[in-house]
Amino acid sequence: MAPMTSSARPLLNRRLAEFGTTIFAEMSALALSTGAINLGQGFPDTDGPEEIREAAVRALRDGRGNQYPPGPGVPELRTAVAAHQQRWYGLTYDPDTEVLVTAGATEAIAATLLALVEPGDEVIALEPYYDSYAACIAMAGGRRVPVTLRPHGGPDAVFRLDLDELRDAVTDRTRLLLINTPHNPTGTVLTRDELQAIADLAVERDLLVVTDEVYEHLVFDGEHLPLASFPGMRERTVTLSSGGKSFSFTGWKVGWVTGAPALVNAVRSAKQFLTYVSSGPFQYAVAEALALPDSYYEALRAELRAKRDLLASGLARAGFSVFRPAGTYFVTTDIRPLGESDGFAFCRALPKRAGVVAIPNAVFYDHREAGAPFVRFAFCKRTEVLEEAVQRLTAPAD
Ligand SMILES: *Cc1c(COP(=O)(O)O)cnc(C)c1O
Questions:
Q1: Is 318 helix (H, G, I), strand (E, B) or coil?
Q2: What pLDDT, on a 0 to 100 scale, did the predictor assign at position 22?
Q3: Is any ligand 1 atom within 6 A of the Cβ of residue 211?
Q4: Atom of ligand 1 at shortest distance to CA of 183?
Q5: Which of 178, 360, 364, 398 has a CA positioned 20 to 30 A from the CA of residue 90?
């Protein structure tokens, strides 16, 4: 029975009404009920380094982080985050005033948007976008302005940002640019020229930039360049990252924000009333993870690159047109060569038809029709799981 309300007013408020249950819930349920291989949601099916798991156990046993850790995060982790930005990008951040620990990058996104966006402000986001961006912009009362990444065909097909379109999207009401590189779901890694153009635009129009770099260590072709490293950007950029993807512990939810003191302060104001603090013992473990040697990061990249190649070539053999991702956990495909055009219908039918679950990219679009023929598969799974998925997808239909 529906709960009683004093009027016919819907329970879910107007800001969130358009965000029903996520597609991931529907597709994961479908995977369960059909026994299909779930390449929908992006989480690894093996855990990260044993020594980092042990570090978490040690912290828990030693009573470090079992009670409320400090609001900005434990000093060990803030110092490790600052050292990481220095080590990989030559960016200097003060662990005390320019680093904030969050409950995953998800809370970093929420807190940043709630802190910086005034109702009515426009927020430009790259479309297709990570699903929480739209919901958090809405919760902040902002208006999202999508700029669509478009597929460029050919043997090296990729999605690219149209810089003129980005420039044209900026108005007097634009508060910030919400960037994501490496980009989920397309796997696009923004190039130096593209990032320079974004930086030039931000400086020229005096915009804040929020950049989600959770896949910073999962770049297979080219290199990850943080937007904050471009001239004029450090003081206007909030950089978000997380230990989930870099260390294969997506359940730990340890994320962080780096930026100039005024920006980090603003984000902390919102963050303190969302979770206050989180992930106590895991913060110590992620601090140790960030200090792992280069060989760890190289091995992670090599392993995922091989999985990307396995799945991408398998999908191509199965008849999909494949956008080879330069980074992330995901490969986006075009289903039109299979004689299909509706990614939703395709993904709802795929578990029964082939025993595999994928996600329709349309859920990441405002312009649903622009995303209709695209379908995303995750390759952060064990090799034998990917091989079995490819086998199923390439088997002749009965
Ligand atoms: C996975 C993901 C996140 C969420 O990171 P958590 O640390 O798990 O909260 C944020 N942004 C993008 C683009 C992601 O793919």
A1: coil
A2: 80
A3: no
A4: 13
A5: 178
